[in-house]
Amino acid sequence: MDTRQRIINVAKSLFHNRSYADVGIKEICDKAEIQKGSFYHFFSAKRDLVLAVIEDFAQDWAHGFVHEAFDSRLPPMERIDYLIDAAYFWQKAAKNLEGHMPGCLFGNLALEISTQDDVLRAKLTAVFLMAKERFKCTLDEAVASKKIAPLDTERTAEAMLAYLEGMILIAKASNDPETIYRLGSALKSIRIERNA
Q1: Domain 1-53: which CATH number of 1.10.10.60, 3.20.20.70, 3.40.50.620, 2.60.120.10
Q2: In sequence order, what DSSP letters do the residues of 144-182 get, joined into one string?
Q3: What is the pLDDT of residues 129-139, one digit of tens each?
Q4: For position 146, what pLDDT does the model report?
């Protein structure tokens, strides 16, 4: 693994398990076993690093469990069940390893820094829009195949994403991944009718 990726991986873990503000460049360098000069060779500031972390995590997310959950070979509404299961098992495994739920890195960062930095907010918004599009495509397919009644797929997808993020946040606040399992089934019942 190259030095840049090692820095990103260390920062990703630290930002996700603690917070952006709580983690300093020195700690990142120490954990990545590099000198500060190496850090500044790749990143001009911590802000540039967090942008790279968001991009890297978005790629992991898009090609990892989210890709599996939204696999076109699964029936449309089963994809949402898969997503809930994946979120639950991921958070539960993290709690078993670390003693606490990390929550959603994107949600964590949005809560912490989106009011302070327009560039970071735009980057996080792009990730959320990508996630919303996964829900929308799934809903469009479910409507087209008559698996669900017609609805406003754009707004329903946005509401589903908001519910998912909120559910993970509440589970994180109580450090209880079972919250995801307990509330997850309601995700599929969210519906916003057309012209509502």
Answers
A1: 1.10.10.60
A2: HTTSS----HHHHHHHHHHHHHHHHHHHHHHT-THHHHH
A3: 999 999 999 99
A4: 95
